[in-house]
Known about the structure:
The protein is α+β, with helices and mostly antiparallel strands. It folds into 2 domains: 72-205, no CATH class; 209-400, Alpha-Beta Complex (Cathepsin B, Chain A). It has 14 helices and 9 strands. Strands 3-9-4-6-7-8-5 form a 7-stranded mixed beta sheet, with helices on both faces. Strands 1-2 form a two-stranded antiparallel sheet. Strand 6 and strand 7 (359-364) form a beta hairpin. Helix 6 (125-140) packs parallel to helix 9 (189-202), helix 10 (209-226) packs across helix 11 (234-240) and helix 10 (209-226) packs across helix 12. The two termini are 25 Å apart.
Amino acid sequence: MSTNKTSVVIAATTAPAASEKQKKRYPGESKGFVEEMRFVAMKLHTKEQAKEGEKETKSPEERPVAKWEPTVDGYLRFLVDRLERSEKLAIELEWFKEQGYEIPEPTAPGKTYSQYLKDLAEKDPQAFICHFYNIYFAHSAGGRMIGRKVAERILDGRELEFYKWDGELSQLLQNVREKLNKVAEEWTREEKNHCLEETDKSFKYSGGCWAFSAVAAVEGLTKIARGNLVSLSEQQLLDCARPDNNGCNGGTMQNAFNYIVSNRGISSEDAYPYKVKDGSCGSNAKPGMQITGFKDVPQNNERALLEAVSRQPVSVGIAGRGDSFIHYSSGVYNAPDCGTTVTHAVTIVGYGASPKGIKYWLAKNSWGETWGEKGYIRLRRDVEWPQGMCGVAQYASYPVA
């Protein structure tokens, strides 16, 4: 784990003025407000959460399973839940409607989040700017990979409007950073701090969750196979598992597992520390753990998922953008309206039942110990619909030693 600290050295013979004594320096402040937001994001993703090994279990049974393929219905749900955030999405939906597809209603989390952004824009412009800056570039930009796969697999290569960019994304991001730094020069310290609080909220939509989920699954497998827990490098996956994945802008656990296989292992976190942003691939890092492949759990089958989790931690995709999910604090999470459109990834590390007999999955998130139950969430298990709570049974996979 790497940390960044700023320090001020004061000569012993120099006595600062009273006003200088009282002035607090914020991390990253000297480089501009965008750098302050980056420090907040780094603090959010500092991994202090306990990495608990699972009990030793039998070797997993090998079973042939089908790989996930995108569907028109699933993609339409994805578009509808994001409709309020881009006019180009309306163009996409109109095209699908012309082709004869029925357009679904937005899910409750999708409507809640859209309304939240509208209210924020009207009542709190500073907070809205910070929220939108982080969410737009950290997650929506990563949707380009989803769009590419949808276009290739189910739309005969039709280019989707939503994923077209006017210029290079890196240059666009740099331009926005410069403008935001300029705007923030006029803000009071109180306004800046309020904006940083919103950065805290918005960063929880970040698209690097796939790397954390995959690494947690491999770490659990390491514990089972070797008897000791080794912290492995999410940063290596963010930097190196390309082009199939897209770093902090999105990816899949399956592609992460494929990278570990082709790379003949993944490095420890000590050898390849976390930086909370994409970087160049450090190819010289020594692998700390190898896997031979991965298996997909049969889709929409909580019993099959239970069998897999009884042997080892399993990476899963879930619908994790709802307000109630983001602000989850404790208890068995039971939100039938959270939807099944996958937007986030966690690792199922166990299962159980509450004192009231409510069955649950125990899932490890990547948002730090301050979220949920010390970084974990209990998702209701064995629900009435096949996809599982928040779609937990749709896209699940685990590494094979």
